[in-house]
Give the backbone structure.
Amino acid sequence: MKIGNINLGERPVMLAPMEDVTDASFRLICKEMGADMVYTEFVSADALIRSISATTRKLAINDAERPTAIQIYGREVEPMVEAAKIVEAAKPDILDINFGCPVKKVAGKGAGAGMLRDIPKMLAITSAIVKAVDVPVTVKTRLGWDCNSIIIRDLAEQLQDCGISALTVHGRTRSQMYTGSADWNAIAAIKDNPRFTIPLIGNGDITTPQQAAEAFSRYGVDGVMIGRASIGAPWIFRDIKSFLSGKEVEPLSTAEKFALLRRQIRESIDRIDEYRGILHIRRHLAASPLFKGISHFRDTRIEMLRADNYAALDDVLSRIEQRITNEIEI
């Protein structure tokens, strides 16, 4: 699969853009674990134009994580074009437009998935950005605003006609947020349109290698995107790529998985500071499948998520790791 001149190989697996999740450290780890392409946290066009430091820092890309896409969102043509030019100067491999974020503070203001209620403006923004930059432009969106407006099949063709190089579709409506199940049949219907010829990337509810394989074989997508299932488990890319290749790769050991989590913690602390770095990483710890199924874990989980310095957190993790190791040996 190619996006512009970026060759991602056959059946690529990508890390989805996620706010407060896909920072530079996590992207690099996911890349090392097998992700074929990674995306930054989404970037506000308005904040980028105003040179808000917390936003401009999101544009920093480590060459080791490439290919990397920077994703922007906004609700007006001119600011989005201006932001796209700023992003292009940061030299991403791809510029992605977010027309899919469902959260109220974004969609409620007409940006992200809010654009699904103003298709003419969505298309105007897309066309203007494609014309304004030389980097390949892609779009990520949803099936429609709600169950009464599933418009993605026609919208996909319209976005293609704007000149985008690939389309990612999350198989839910905005109204669903992240509830219910992703509708992969609706994603597959896009490929049934003979006029739709650009790469299609499917997103939504892929949590196992088998589901990723089914996305390719049954639903015909060109690539898959992994979002929430990667939080606290960057090794999911290794597992999926191994399964897709048909080669048996030894699963990471418990010690190796804990080492990756500790690396994330240390790099988060180095990037911010000890207290805020640990606050940032709690989302990964809370979501990690490493801790699922441990009996009588509630008090230890609370202790882990309340630890506010590295020494205390590392002590809790060491005890958990030893407990898991002992259970495996038994």
